[in-house]
């Protein structure tokens, strides 16, 4: 089946007794300003009376030293991590990105819904062609109905290892939790490689092996004193006793889910993925790449003479592949303690930091997450669905091609797939093909809505049973407004594993999770349709499944993929087409004039 395309983009609205009808057909419009003005007049786009926040991003190299290794690191504005974007709910946002390096790049605003502005979403070859070296592109979008902690990152190759930062949306209404806070502390968790990660990725794909593990985890770009040469590269933040702080925690790591804790302090979870939750207290959190978690911390302890309380993050391990078996630490330092600050490399870890294999803690923590479901912040989970899609998530062993060297298990190559389809990014923008009526056999809308073969998904022998995956760019297409359920089913090929699956362009509700195989006859009876957690990235349980529901009300093409970068590179991804609806607010907007070309 060929790619579903819009026959023409027709934007129609009523102005008094008259009808304004703008028809854009193929090609890049030479009447962009006129059309933009008409759309503003029609109320389809925000007017200039709305606040517009403008930012400048310059993608550039910077020499950075960690663990006694200095290397050129790709950065935005020379900062690692990158600058924080701070806007208000309802703002128009314009971010001009200048690519000053001889590499392609794009930027994704992770979790921003991009209502009808898919051109600003960012994944390379899905919603745009990359920004080439020496070129610029201005991402323009409006933050609608969202507030809280999100983040931004590069969405080309493995560039997000260093090209990332926080994206904060200040709410229009007061915070709904009863405990007020006096200050905010951003906590960006990441990974550091001494080697060039571009070469790490290339070698992985050249030989079909797993990637080299990172050399350190980081807190706000700093590995902490448990690593070599890192006493001075340890994050320390001053706090005052008696005050409450909002920690905005972001997992920006490439390939690792993480546990996080603060010694002797209780964390109160109040938000995940920029959605308020019913508050609950915990000693630690589990957070996957792509996710954000806001917690309240009250400085109510009596410190010793150093005034220091350790915070730590280490991996949540569900894979048999090599990994970085280390821990990053930082400190919260109570003010008013005057002992000279001494950071020792031999620091004992908090007892509240879960063990690396602690799936019980991870599962319990995630089960405690519930939507606020209040009158001000309702939980709009679809009670009934129009379509259910069951998607297997697999790691695959592929036979080695003739005359090639393969270094995966048994001399084969590693790939990954969804419903045994390994996603291949085309050499053009899928969204442009969809919008401009470009039909190609390379991009089709026949992604299978159920596994091609039914078997004991989580009970297979991990090394003796395998399926060679198929390669292509197959998309799932649904009409505007479809109430869609996607059941994400882990499989046991190579090993069962926890997978963080991110959906672009939509929030969704996690109505149920379970271990083993999803049972369509029994499991829906225990769905939570009252206050399920709302997110943009779901942790599919190791050896289990997760059922999510969403309202497909955002026309365009949207990437769905694992946020473990090695798995996305291996093909663990798919695309979702939401067709335009009937009214003016249900249509994809025209592309900007500066949209990059391939």
TrEMBL record:
GO terms for biological process: lignin catabolic process. It is found in: Secreted, Extracellular space, Apoplast. It comes from the Eukaryota. Binds 4 Cu cations per monomer. Keywords: Apoplast, Copper, Glycoprotein, Lignin degradation, Metal-binding, Oxidoreductase, Repeat, Secreted. Residues 58-172, 184-336, 446-580 form the Plastocyanin-like domain. InterPro entries: Cu-oxidase-like_N, Cu-oxidase_2nd, Cu-oxidase_C, Cu-oxidase_fam, Cu_oxidase_CS, Cu_oxidase_Cu_BS, Cupredoxin, CuRO_1_LCC. CDD domains: CuRO_1_LCC_plant, CuRO_2_LCC_plant, CuRO_3_LCC_plant. Its main location: secreted. It catalyses: 4 hydroquinone + O2 = 4 benzosemiquinone + 2 H2O. Belongs to the multicopper oxidase family. This is Laccase. The lineage of its organism: Eukaryota, Viridiplantae, Streptophyta, Embryophyta, Tracheophyta.
